[in-house]
Specification:
GO molecular function: cyanate hydratase activity; DNA binding
Organism: uncultured Quadrisphaera sp
Shape: globular
Number of helices: 7
Strand content: under 5%
Radius of gyration: 13 Å
Largest sheet: none
Helix content: 55-70%
InterPro entries: Cyanase, CYNS_N, Lambda_DNA-bd_dom_sf
Pfam families: CYNS_N
Protein name: Cyanate hydratase
Number of domains: 1
Distance between the termini: 27 Å
Order of helices and strands: HHHHHHH
């Protein structure tokens, strides 16, 4: 993260979410239950594909032991197609 007030990049937030989930031995379904949303939607949101509400981001970060910087990143609207690795997947590429 660079500069004062800069928002944590979504890809970094997603990496922190995955690491925290694995470290705590939680499934995506358990995280989704805490967030109060479907597992597929929650997983996609936590991996940076769409924004979460403030309440959802706070619930996920509390469960995962992550700070407000991650929650702030999870609330931001992503730019579709901004992740080159995901854009290499032919299935994803067709829908962007």
């Amino acid at each position: 993260m660079s500069g004062a007030g800069a928002i944590l990049p979504r890809s970094e937030a997603a990496d922190l979410v995955v690491a925290a989930r694995v470290r705590r031995g939680l499934s995506w379904a358990q995280v989704a239950a805490e967030v109060g949303a479907p597992v597929v939607w929650t997983t996609a949101a936590l991996l940076g594909q769409h924004p979460m509400s403030a309440e959802q981001a706070a619930a996920a970060c509390a469960l995962l032991g992550l700070d407000d910087a991650v929650a702030e990143s999870l609330r931001q609207q992503p730019s579709r197609g901004s992740d080159p690795a995901r854009m290499a997947d032919p299935t994803v590429y067709r829908f962007v």
